Amino acid sequence: MSSLYSTTAIILSRRDFRETDRWYTALTPEFGKIEFVARGGHKSLAKLTPHLEMISEVELLLVRGRQYQIVAGTERRRAFFGLHERLSQLTLARSALHLVDSATKPLESDSVLYELLEQWLEFLCCTESISNERAGFLLGSFTLKLMDVCGYRPELRLCVSCHRSIEQNSYLWHALRGGVVCESCTRTNQQAWFSARTISDEALKLVRFALHEPFSEQMRPRLESEHLESFHEVLESFIISHFPIIPAVSLRTACSI
Ligand SMILES: [Zn+2]
Q1: How far apart are CA 169 and CA 173, in angstroms?
Q2: Span from the CA of 142 to the centroid of ligand 1 (angstroms)
Q3: How many angstroms separate the alpha carbon of residue 141 from the centre of ligand 1?
Q4: Which of 29, 65, 99, 252 is the most buried (most CB within 10 A)?
Q5: 160 DSSP β-pair partners
Q6: Ligand 1 center–CA 169 separation, angstroms
């Protein structure tokens, strides 16, 4: 394998590294998450980093070194104009980049995840005003889709115990078992299901919608506070039980601007 290669990427995170260098993580369609260093201390850093500091899709030229990869060139492919002037959109974009960074390990290739992140950024660019409630719901939708891509999809139609279709108003939510459980199962073995909690039909519909429908549709559902509250409780309990790598409490607070 040649030590020099190029890839398309979306930068996920950046931090200072040693005295004059910068450390980056980025998501790529071919290699999954990658990490690389931009060398400082001379002119090149100033030339390279403007593209790496904004939320954008870039073409990277990388050199595989003995210890880490070093960026030798960058070119901006897409700037996602419109993100940087609007606080809600920028917060949602940054939160999603952070979630993807937390949820992935380097070099686990996943083109579906790259597409998801691309769609999210494109969606935010063409969205006008977003209320705090909508922002929380949107980030919930992104998180559900992210968890689905990472192999954690909640069961929202069949009872996780007897595998029969659930019926209206006669089921509970069990975070640890990862889905809905019908009332008759919980009655048969109360001890096994004691931690199941109620979830309204409306809240369950929101979870289904957020998981299955594209981002462009997520502006449509009416968000009544009691159902939205329940939506977040379900999502947070699911995250805590299956994907604690994502700080669940940060989803809603990230959106209260
Ligand atoms: Zn059942």
Answers
A1: 11
A2: 29
A3: 26
A4: 99
A5: none
A6: 13
Distance CA 230, CA 110 (A): 31
CA of 162 to the centre of ligand 1 (A): 4
Separation of alpha carbons 69 and 17, rounded Å: 13
Tell me, yes or no, if the pTM score tops 0.85.
Answer: yes
Cα 242 to ligand 1 centre (Å):
21
Distance 148 CA to ligand 1 centre (A): 23
Segment 205-247, tens digit of pLDDT: 999 999 999 999 999 999 999 999 999 999 999 988 888 776 6
Q: How many CA atoms lie within 13 A of 75 on its CB side?
A: 6
pLDDT along the chain (257 residues), means of 10: 87 90 94 92 66 90 91 90 85 92 86 95 91 93 94 95 94 96 95 93 96 97 94 91 72 63
Residues 79-96: tens digit of each pLDDT:
888 887 888 899 999 999
Provide φ and ψ at 218, rounded to 5°: -75, 0
Calculate how far, in angstroms, residue 6's C-alpha sits from the geometric centre of ligand 1: 51
Residue-range domains of the chain with CATH: 4-78 (2.40.50.140), 131-154+199-255 (no CATH)
- Ligand 1 centroid to residue 167 C-alpha, Å: 10
- Ligand 1 centre to CA of 161 (Å) is 5
So what's the pLDDT on residue 163? 97
Distance in Å, CA 243 to ligand 1 centroid: 25
25 has which bridge partners?
A: 13, 35
